Amino acid sequence: MGKIIFNGEIKSRSDVKVDIEDRGYQFGDGVYEVIRVYNGELFAGNMHLNRLMDSARLIQMKVPFTVAEIETRVKELISGDQLQEGIVYMQLTRGVSPRTHAFPTSDVEPVFVAYTKEIPYTGKLKPGAKGITTDDIRWLRCNIKSLNLLGNIMAKQVAVEAGCDEAIQHRDGLVTEGSSSNVSIVVDGTLKTHPASNLILNGITRQVMLKLCADHGIPYAEEAFTIADMMAAEEVLYTSTSVEITPIITIDGQTIATGNPGPVTERLQQLFADEIERQCGSVK
Fold first, then answer.
1. How far apart are CA 283 and CA 257, in angstroms?
2. Residue 245's closest CA among 160, 129, 89?
3. Is 145 a catalytic residue?
4. Nearest 5 degrees, angle CA 151-CA 155-CA 156?
5. Over 90: is that where the pLDDT of 213 sits?
């Protein structure tokens, strides 16, 4: 994994340097994406790349490449690294300019970087995770996948120190999302998840999951829910590029329902595995 994409060119990682006045480094002035790779193929790649473009547009950042151009380079990187199972991380910053809070007034070129990381895929349905609730202290534009992740990091650390897998964030008792995931519940057989708004990131796995619900007759609603609703739910699950679809079986030390993965979650896990195979081929 010694190669990276730097401003459209594939180079050795050791040959690339980031300027100290890169606005991503000094301000977090940039956006990013993480795309899962199965069987050497991008999963939901177009959805991720279009979200990268949307995030850049929302912070008034120009993108020097088209989706097709980025996809071509990323596929070349995957091939060159001989990556079979893992991720591609990519980020775009506003560029290098003398430090000042306002956008640069001169013509500054954005800086684009991408690299791969190997992550084995076991193909096993995950048995369950532990969650902990915490206040959502983040800014009000969580729909932008920006480099400003300090609030998320602090929430994740709360989970780690409590021996949990994920921090479930809330605003005055209304659940928003996890520190690095979307959170859903099942009530009376219906999947419920927070509406796509400025308060959450509209996760790609979340979007794929909702389409699977629509395609396979699983009732769902994009509807906000409270901590109390969650604790009384039949099932709780969280979704992201890294955890795919995983049940949460305890929250704040309390067992959710029976303490076992529920039937809706298990069905969605299998449908998601089928979707991986449909897009990327059979993963061994």
1. 33
2. 129
3. yes
4. 115
5. yes
The Cα 42–Cα 88 span in angstroms is 9
Residue 231 DSSP code: H
Pairing of strands 111-118, 166-171: unpaired
C-alpha–C-alpha distance, residues 62 and 142, integer Å: 20
Q: In this predicted structure, what is the pLDDT of residue 282? A: 87
Tell which phi-psi region holds residue 236, choosing left (phi > 0), alpha (psi between -120 and 50) or beta: beta
Q: Are the CB atoms for 128 and 261 separated by under 8 Å?
A: yes
Annotated catalytic residue: which of 3, 145, 156, 192?
A: 145
Distances (CA, A) of 22 to 14, 34, 95, 128: 18, 21, 5, 40
Here the contacts of 269-275 (C-beta below 8 Å, separation 24 or greater) are: 269/125, 269/126, 269/244, 269/245, 270/125, 271/212, 271/216, 272/205, 272/208, 272/209, 272/212, 272/244, 272/245, 273/123, 273/125, 275/208, 275/212
CA distance 50 to 47: 5
CA-CA distance, 43 to 46, in Å (whole number)? 8
Four-point Cα dihedral 76, 78, 79, 81, nearest 10: 120
- Tell me: pLDDT of 47 over 80: yes
pLDDT, tens only, 87-105? 999 999 999 999 999 999 8
Task: Mention every residue, 6+ apart, whose C-beta is less than 8 A from residue 100.
Answer: none
E strand or H helix at 176: strand 174-178
- Residue 80: CB atoms within 10 A of its CB come to 13
Q: Which two tokens stand for residue 117?
A: 């990381």
